[in-house]
Design a protein that fits this description.
Helix content: over 70%
Shape: elongated
Order of helices and strands: HHHHH
Low-confidence stretches: none
Number of strands: 0
Structural class: mainly alpha
Mean pLDDT: 92
Length: 193
C-alpha cells in the first residue's frame, strides 16, 4: 500500500498513528535501558536480593488491567452508537487510572515505611531504581489520563461516532501501551533480583 495514496483525512490519520508508534517505540527503548541498567546493577554488593514489592503494586496492576478492559468496552459501545454506555466506560477508565496512581503512591509509602527513601542516607540503589522506573511510568499514566480527559470532552462534543474515532483510537492505543508496559515492569521488578 502506498502511504501517499488516499484522501487528506486518510493521510492525516496514518501520519498521526505513525507519530504515536514512533513515540511508543522511543518509550520502549527508554524503559529497556532502565531495566537493563537494573539488571547490570544487581551485581553490586549493596543490592537488595530479598526485597518483595509492596502489595499496593499488585493491587495497582490489577486495577490497570481492568482499566484496559473498560477502555475496550467504551470503544465497543461507541461502535454500537451507545453514547451513554461509552461515557460510563470512559469515566470508569478515568477513575481506574486515578486509582492506579493512588495505589502506586501507597506502594511508595510502604517502601518508605520499610526505611528506604529515594535518596539520602536511608536510600538504597535497588529502591532508587524501583522509584525511578515507577515514577516515570506514573508520569506516562498522567499523560494517558490527560488524553482520556480530551477523549471524554470530545465524546460529549459528539466528535466521535462509529465511523469517526481517530482520537479515541489513538488514546486507547496509548492507554493499552502504558497498561502493558506496567505489567512488564511489575513482572520484571517482581521476579528479577
Amino acid at each position: 500500500m502506498d502511504l501517499t495514496q488516499g484522501t487528506l483525512e486518510e493521510k492525516n490519520s496514518r501520519a498521526k498513528k505513525m507519530m504515536l508508534w514512533f513515540g511508543i517505540i522511543s518509550l520502549v527503548m527508554s524503559f529497556a535501558g532502565w531495566t537493563s541498567a537494573f539488571v547490570v546493577s544487581s551485581s553490586r554488593p549493596d543490592w537488595l536480593k530479598d526485597f518483595q514489592l509492596p502489595n499496593a503494586f499488585i493491587i495497582s496492576t490489577v486495577i490497570i488491567l481492568i482499566s484496559s478492559i473498560t477502555f475496550v468496552l467504551a470503544k465497543k459501545a461507541l461502535k454500537n452508537n451507545n453514547r451513554q454506555q461509552t461515557a460510563l466506560f470512559l469515566f470508569a477508565t478515568l477513575a481506574l487510572g486515578i486509582a492506579f496512581i493512588f495505589y502506586q503512591f501507597n506502594g511508595f509509602q510502604q517502601i518508605i515505611d520499610l526505611g528506604y527513601n529515594f535518596t539520602g542516607p536511608t536510600s538504597n540503589v535497588t529502591m532508587s531504581y524501583i522509584y525511578l522506573i515507577a515514577i516515570v511510568h506514573i508520569l506516562h499514566v498522567v499523560v494517558g489520563l490527560f488524553c482520556l480527559l480530551v477523549v471524554i470532552y470530545n465524546h460529549f462534543k459528539q466528535k466521535y461516532n462509529a465511523s469517526k474515532m481517530l482520537g479515541f483510537e489513538l488514546a486507547a492505543t496509548f492507554w493499552h501501551f502504558i497498561d502493558i508496559l506496567w505489567v512488564y515492569l511489575f513482572l520484571f521488578l517482581y521476579f528479577v533480583r
